[in-house]
Amino acid sequence: xxxxxxxxxxQHEYQRLFATCVIRPERTAEVEEWVxxxxxxxxxxxxxxRRLNVPWFVVAVLHEADTGRDFTVHLHNGDPLTERTxxxxxxxxxxxxxxxxxxxxxxxxxCLHHFDQWPDWSIAGILFKLEGHSGWSYRLHRPDVxxxxxxxxxxxxxxxxxxxxxxWNETAVAQRCGAAVLLRRLAERDxxxxxxxGESAHGPLLxxxxxxxxxxxxxLQQFLNTLPGIYLKVDGRAGPRTSAALHKLTGRYxxxxxxxxxxxxxxxxxxxxxxxxxx
Length: 279
What we know:
Distance between the termini: 60 Å
Shape: elongated
Order of helices and strands: HHHHHHHHEEHHHH
Largest sheet: 2 strands, antiparallel
Number of helices: 12
Structural class: mainly alpha
Strand content: under 5%
Mean pLDDT: 90
């Protein structure tokens, strides 16, 4: 059982971090090269994902994060496919005989870590599962440093890492690209979709709502603060000041803002129809 629960607060955090994830300029070419390479091998990842009902891109980022996209080794721990794993977890896969195909070994590794039983493939659900897979040490013991397993190569991570079990190095820097960063670039290139993307059950992602918080509103507020003459508190609440700032940029208020004349006309029209039917 996970030591951390995917609470609404944690979901909000993952959504906010993903929405504000910016790839470092000096790492852009490296990330692009990875995306091109992984798209060339997408069918191999799809073959594994279909067996287990796991999105192919989750298999792909795990392959990079855990073994550097090496198709000659076990996804479990990097041991060669020519025999069963010798290091922890040792003796995998249990079924079959070596040499193993990468696909068979990868499916075994994902089942071992219960990816085949995971029900939530939203961006928050994926990041929670990936962070738990790598370990909760950063969140539990170094909350000031976001896990490089997720965020390396982005502005969310700078330095500091565990160089061995329970051995912390303040100046060490992770080497491989973070899994969330890879997912972010795949999404930016419109190559993947997450469960729950698009409009929510309650309407558009951005709408006037003074008492609710949203990672998408928070990301909007951060952007609006980069414009001249706009100074917003970044709190994720789409109240009158955030709506007014959007109006300054676009000439339109947030949907649902009482000052939005189009919204008011639509409401008046609906009320006319309702009262006409009732009359």
